[in-house]
Amino acid sequence: MRITLTSVFVDNQESAFKFYTDVLGFEKKQDFPVGKFKWLTVVSPEEPDGTELLLEPSDNPAARSYKDSIYEQGIAAAAFAVDDVQREYERLKQLGVEFKMEPTDVGAAIVALFDDTCGNLIQIYQAL
């Protein structure tokens, strides 16, 4: 068993795509219509055949409630591994990313938490 796809609920697929590619540096993997929305996925350029992240519309009331609730509680919707949290934090800050938690040593990792502009909190982490 392997994880090949996971998702985050987003307010607007096009805005999310721009943030996840232009700011975070992911690359488009799949993009095709599904009803009034798209099946729109991104991947890490470091692993183009790796796990895909689906930018899933949050227009469903249950999805919106879930997304809003975990955001309000400060819970990350996804976590992305980086080699150097401090360097990535500084790069993203220069691009205008709003961090909710600066790089923090939590024992087994250094973590930071930011707003993805699409209704989610995202964690980046560096394993120690």
Give a brief rundown of this model:
By secondary structure, this protein is α/β, with parallel strands linked by helices. Helix content is 26%, strand content 41%.
Task: Label the CATH architecture.
Answer: Roll
SS strand fraction:
35-45%
Helices and strands, in N-to-C order?
EHEEEHEHEEE
Largest beta sheet: strand ordering: 1-4-3-2
Write down the oligomeric state.
Answer: single chain
Overall geometric form: globular
The CATH class, by name, is: Alpha Beta
Could you list the spans in which at least 5 consecutive residues all have pLDDT below 50? none
Mean residue pLDDT: 97
Quickly count the helices: 3
* Superfamily (CATH H level) name: 2,3-Dihydroxybiphenyl 1,2-Dioxygenase, domain 1
Total domain modules: 1
Instruction: Provide the CATH topology.
Output: 2,3-Dihydroxybiphenyl 1,2-Dioxygenase, domain 1
Can you describe what's shown?
- With 128 residues, this protein is an alpha/beta fold.
- It has one domain (5-127): Roll (2,3-Dihydroxybiphenyl 1,2-Dioxygenase, domain 1), CATH 3.10.180.10.
- The chain is built from three helices and eight strands; from the N terminus they run βαβββαβαβββ.
- The chain has helices spanning 13-23, 61-72, 85-94, and strands spanning 5-10, 27-34, 37-43, 52-57, 78-81, 99-105, 109-115, 121-127.
- The strands form two sheets. It has a four-stranded mixed β-sheet.
- Strand 2 (27-34) and strand 3 form a beta hairpin.
- The longest helix is centred in the middle third of the chain and has 12 residues, at 61-72.
- It is globular and about 45 Å long.
- The chain starts with a strand and ends with a strand.
- The mean pLDDT is 97.
